[in-house]
Amino acid sequence: MNETLPRKSFNDKRKIYRALNYLFAIVWIVNGLLCKVLNLVPRHELIVSRILGGEHAFFLTKAIGISETLMAIWIISNTKSRFNVAIQIVIIATMNVIEFVFAPDLLLWGRSNLMFATMFILLIYYNEFILNKQLTK
Predict the structure, then answer these.
(1) What residues make up the domain containing 20?
(2) H or E stretch at 14
(3) pLDDT per position as a tens digit, 58-93
């Protein structure tokens, strides 16, 4: 047990850490499974088509969606969580910069999407590298 945190504070922080991980997993599931695999938001395929070309956009959108769904499962498993967070940050940053440059008109909040992605990245970083670090001291 962590000696530097009072038990209640430790338990509260553990709950926040887990809740945030579930939130992150939900975001990946919504964007991957619902928006891309089930095509509930066709705009995602348009973005893929614009960036990677229309010929294989359907297949690539589904593959990206499946990958995002697998990311959610990885998050929930809490296996190699620091590596997982690093991968999430790279993917989110890369996807959003590419979309910012090549498809801003197709984004939910236009170029402002990059600001929301940055806040999401910071929250993911905080949860793993600051909050979880306090829990594992």
Answers:
(1) 7-136
(2) helix 7-29
(3) 999 999 999 999 999 999 999 999 999 999 999 999
Query: 37: which 2 tokens?
Result: 């695999």
Q: What is the 3-state secondary structure (H, E, C) of the chain?
A: CCCCCCHHHHHHHHHHHHHHHHHHHHHHHHHHHHHHHCCCCCHHHHHHHHHHCCCCHHHHHHHHHHHHHHHHHHHHHCCCHHHHHHHHHHHHHHHHHHHHHHCHHHCCCHHHHHHHHHHHHHHHHHHHHHHHHHHHC
3-class state of residue 6 by DSSP = coil
CB 64 within 8 A of CB 36: yes
In a domain, 1, yes or no: no
- Rounded to a whole number, what is the largest CA-CA distance in the chain? 58
